Amino acid sequence: PVPTISWRKVNGHNPSKARLRKSQAVLEIPNVQLEDAGMYECKAENSRGRNVFRGQLQVYTYPHWVEKLNDTQLDSGDPLRWECKATGKPRPTYRWLKNGVPLWPQSRIEMVNGVLMIHSVNVSDAGMYQCLAENKYGTIYASAELKILASAPTFPLNQMRKTIIITKGQEVVIECKPQASPKPTITWKKGDKALRESKR
């Protein structure tokens, strides 16, 4: 006689959105998600006996960004750490480009699992960077620009006053605030002699 058919997900519950058609002979799962993966069992039985078939459903996904890059501005000499993170099945692998050209590890440059590190950036590191996350189903891109600030010290906005008049015994504060990148070292002189710190 025509068998009765039933379906079940081994080690789990049937997806709530699943539906059965054609006298329960067809199991349909619309809009399949990662959690729908697993072993499914179809059981057919009539008065003469029963038979079972099992099949594995594997679900794969495009890479999808969890964490992207942001444009970054650094002083010459600063360290850079960029991370791009993606999900997907199979798990995505990462590649880096600089100005459209593949970037490779060097003495100052490390690339590990989607993390790019440059120790002590300089002007040559400036440019447009891309992180690629890819699996066999697709590739996605994230882009960011790295700007490196490098300038000799100047005093355009914070000129020191040429003359300071102060009453004997009072405290005087003289500020030295140059604009420079990287951060400059500052020394003081009185006339031609270097100033040294003292109690005063």
From TrEMBL:
GO terms for cellular component: axon; neuronal cell body; plasma membrane. Keywords: Cell membrane, Disulfide bond, Glycoprotein, Immunoglobulin domain, Membrane, Repeat, Signal. It comes from the Eukaryota. Residues 189-200 have a biased composition (Basic and acidic residues). InterPro entries: Cell_Adh-Cytoskel_Orgn, Ig-like_dom, Ig-like_dom_sf, Ig-like_fold, Ig_I-set, Ig_sub, Ig_sub2. Residues 181-200 are annotated as: Disordered. The keyword Membrane applies. Residues 1-53, 63-147, 153-200 form the Ig-like domain. One of its GO terms (molecular function) is axon guidance receptor activity. It is found in: Cell membrane. Pfam families: I-set (PF07679), Ig_3 (PF13927). The keyword Glycoprotein applies. GO terms for biological process: homophilic cell adhesion via plasma membrane adhesion molecules; synapse organization. This is CNTN5 protein. The lineage of its organism: Eukaryota, Metazoa, Chordata, Craniata, Vertebrata.
